[in-house]
Amino acid sequence: MNSHKRNLCFGSVIVGVLALLSFVTYELSMYVQNANAIPAFARKYGFSCNVCHVPGFPKLNDTGNIFRDQGYQLGGDGDLPTHEGITMGYFPLSFRTTVGYQAASVRTDGSGVSTGGFGFTGLDILSFGTLHRDISFGLVFTPGLGSAGFGTGASDSDLEAAFVRLNRLERFLGVKGESGTYLMNLKVGKFELDVPFSEKRSPTLNTPFVLYHYVAGTPYTATISGTSTSSYANPNSFAIGENSPGIEMAGITKTAVTDGYFRYSLAGLSTNAFSGPLSGCAGGICPNGAVAGTGGQNVNFYGHMTQSFGGYGIVTGQRLGVFGVYGNAPTMVNATCPDCQAVGGSGQPFSRIGADASLTFDGQWNLFGAFVHGNDSKNLFVSQAIVNAQNASWNGAFVELDWYPTQLPLVGMPGWLLSYRYDIIRNDRQGDPTFAKNYNNVDSHTFMARYYIHQSNRTDIALHAEYNAYRTEGVGSKNVVLGSGTCAPACGNLLGQTMLVGFDFAY
Amino acid sequence: MQTMTATRRGRVRVNPYKIFIVPLLLVAAASLGTAPATRVACGLCEQPDRFVRLQTASTDSRPVGSQGFTHPFALSPEDWKSILTELHVQRQAEGLLIPVPQGPVLSAFTEEEVSYLSVTLSKAFAQAQPNEWVVFGLTRSTPQGLTELTTGGGYVEGPSLHVVLANYRKVVTMPGTRQLLWERPLRPDAGPAYDLVVGNHQTIVRESGFVPSLLSSSPSELAIAYQALLLGEPAEASVTQKTSAANQLAIPPSTIVAPPLSIEDRLQVLKRLQAQGLITEDEYRAKKQQLLDRF
User: Which of A206, A258, A427, B254 is the most exposed place for a label (fewest CB within 10 A)?
Assistant: First the structure.
C-alpha cells in the first residue's frame, strides 16, 4: 500500500513537471518502434517536411508514399546525387530519436510490475537516396547503446535495413510507361516488407501493430520482464512487421479508370535461421523412419497488392488491398527431445492471408485497417514435443482512425495528428491442445496525440503523447481456480498499460 | 529488441487524463489563433488558384499601431507594376556541415503574376481599412506536377509600403496545408527558404524575439519608400532590424539598382501621385520644381 502511495505521489510530481515543461515521456522500451523520417530529402529538394508527411511525421502522405514507391525520386534531374542544384550542404544522412519520460505497468496472477523514467528510446541513423538515376539505396543503422530504452536496457546494434533498388526495369523489356509509372523495381538486401500500413512510419511509437508480430503460443505482452506467463513453444518466429533479408519485385502505376494507383510487391525472404542439423537421432536413424540430416535454409514468400480510387488512398481517395505469406519455418533442435524435430520434419509450412482497406475523408481523416488469418503447421509443435499437437490458427485485425485537422477546432491550431487504434487477436485453435481456445487473445487500445512544434527543410520536432492499454487472455502462469499449479486450461489474464510523453525529433 | 528490468512495486494506477490534458492545454493556450476575418476586394481578386483580399490584423501578422495603417491607399496598376518588378528574392544560405552561400537574386514574381497583382492590389488597397492588411496567394506547378504556393501581404504606414512574403514557392501537397495558407496567408509554413532582397528605396524590417525564433521562422518584411521609388530617385539601400540586435540578419544589402527614370517619366509619376491624392498640391509643386531644376 505504501509503495502504491509512493507511486501515486511520484505520478503527481511527474504531472507537475509536465505542466511546467511539457516534457514528460512515458514509454515502453521493449516495443519502441524504429520509425523513419528523413530530413535529408527535405534538404535535398528544399521541401518542408509536410510535403511528404502528414502533420507530425513520420506517417507518409500521398506524395511521400509515391516518392518512396518511385525509389526516392521525383522524376526529374534533381533526383541525381550529382545534380548541380544539390548543394554541398546536402548529405544523405538523418538522425532520429525520442526523448522524454516513459513508464509501463503490467499485472497478472494478482501481482504487478511497473517501471518508469526519463531517457531516450535509442537512435536511428538513416540514409536513403539515389546512387544514380533509377538506382536507389537505403540504410538504417541502430547503434548499440547501453542507456537506450530510457536507461532500462541496452539496445542491440544492428543494420536494420540495407538495400539497393533498381528501378523501372521494364525499360529493358521495351515497356514504356507514362510518367509516374514504375512497373518493375527490384530490391535486394534487408528491408521492411510492403506491409499494408508501414509500422516504421506509424505515428504510434511504443505500441506495435499486434498482428504484424503475433506468434501463436507466445504471449503477447508489450510488457516489461518479470511477469509470469505461460506459453507453448512455437519455432516459427516469422513476423511480417520485422525487416527481412531477401529480394523484392514491386511496382506502381496510375490507373486512369479509377483515378488511382495499382501497386504490387512480391518478395522472397530468407530466414536467418537454419533447420537442423537433425542431431540426436542415434546413427542418423530417427523414429518413424525419418532420416537425419541438415534442414537447410528456408525461403518465405510475401505478396501485397493494392488498388486505389480517386487518389493514393492515404490523404485522398480510397484503397483496397490483399496480402499474404507462405513459408516454411525452421524447426530448430529441441534439446529435451532431439528426436522430435526429426518427427516434425525440417521446415514446416505456415501461412498468413489478409486484406486491408484505407478510407479518407476531406483530406483530414484516414480510417484504415487490416485483417489477417494465420495458420502454423502442427509439425512445428510436434518438433517441440507437444503431445497431440495440432495446426494453430488465429485471426488478427486492427483498425485505426487518424485525424490531421487543418486547424484544431476552437483553438485554430494547425500541425496536430490525433489517432486511435484498436488491435485484436482471436485464436481459432492452439498448437498445444491443452491450452484454452481463448489463450493469447489480445485486445489493445491506443490513443495518440502529436503536435508539430516545428518543421523546416532541415529538421522536425514533435510533441508526442501516447497511451496504450491492452489485455492478453489466459496467459498467466497460475491456475485461476486453485491459485497455483498448472495454468491450463484456466489461466489469468494479463493487463498492461504503456504511456509516453516526449519530444520526437529528426535532423 | 530491448528488455526492461523492473522492481516489483505492486499495482500502479496511471491516470492518462492528467498526462495528456495538461501539456495539450499548455500548448493550446500558448498558440491560440483562429483564422482572421477576411473580405473580398474584387471579382478578379478571388480565383481558384490565386487571390488578393483584405484581412484584419491577426496573430499571424504585425499588430496595427494606434494610428492604424494609412488606408485606403490609391496607386494605379502601372505604379504597382513598377513596385512589384522591383521586388527580388534570394534563397537563404544553408548547409549541414559545409556552409553554402545564398542563391542568386531572382525577381519575386513572374510577369504574369505581376500583371495579376498590379491590378488586384490596386483595387484592394483602394478599399482597405486602417485595420486591414491586403493579403495575397499565388500558385504555380512544378515540372514534377507539384504545386508551389506563394503567400504574403502588405500595408501602408505613412510614407512606407510594407511587404511580407510569408511563404515563397513552397511546395504544398496536403490539402489541409493549402487550405490553411489560403485562410492564413501571413502564416509562415515551415520557415521561409527565401528572403526578400533589399533594393533601391527598400529597407528590411524583421520582427524578432525569443519565442518566434525558437519555434518558428519569421518571414522577412520589406519597407518600401514608394514615392521615391516611383519617382526614380537615387537612394542607398539600408538594412534595419526592429528588435534584438543579437539576431543578425542573413541578408546583406544587395546592389540591386533599378534603371533611372527619365525626367519625363518622373514628371508623369509625380502628376499621378498628386492626382491620386498621395501628395499635396504644395508637395507636387516643390517636387516638380526640383525635377525641372535638375533638367
Answer: A258
For the record, the C-alpha cell of A206 comes out as 511504443
Q: How far lies A411's CA from each of A11, A126, B55, in Å?
A: 28, 36, 19
Q: Which of chain B's residues have a Cβ under 8 Å away from the Cβ of A24?
A: 19, 23
Amino acid at A430: Q
Q: How far apart are CA A108 and CA B13, in angstroms?
A: 14
Residue B75: its pLDDT value, please?
A: 92
Regarding beta strands A158-166 and A182-191, do their DSSP bridges make them parallel or antiparallel, or are they unpaired? antiparallel
| Contact at CB, A225 and B4, closer than 8 angstroms | yes
The share of chain B scoring above pLDDT 70, in percent, equals 67
The answer to whether A117 faces chain B, any CB pair under 8 Å, is no
The minimum CA-CA distance between A292 and chain B, rounded to whole Å, is: 34
User: pLDDT tens-digit profile of B99-110?
Assistant: 556 678 899 999
Going by pLDDT thresholds of 50, 70 and 90, the confidence category of residue A265 is very high
Please tell me the distance in Å from B56's CA to the nearest CA on chain A. 16
For residue A50, the one-letter residue type is N
Distance from CA of A15 to the nearest CA of B (A): 6
CB-based contact A103:A116 (threshold 8 Å):
yes
Question: Which of A150, A402, A407 is most worth mutating to test chain B (most B CB atoms within 10 A of its CB)?
Answer: A407
Residue B31 per-residue DSSP state: T
Question: For chain B, how long is the longest CA-to-CA vector?
Answer: 95
Asked if the Cβ–Cβ distance from B3 to A153 is below 8 Å, we say yes
pLDDT digit string, tens, across residues A354-405: 999 999 999 999 999 999 999 999 988 988 888 999 999 999 999 999 999 9
**Beta carbons within 10 angstroms of residue B278's beta carbon:** 20
> Using CA atoms, how far apart are residues A470 and A223, in angstroms rounded to an integer?
10
The cell for A427 is 485464436
Full-model pTM: 0.80
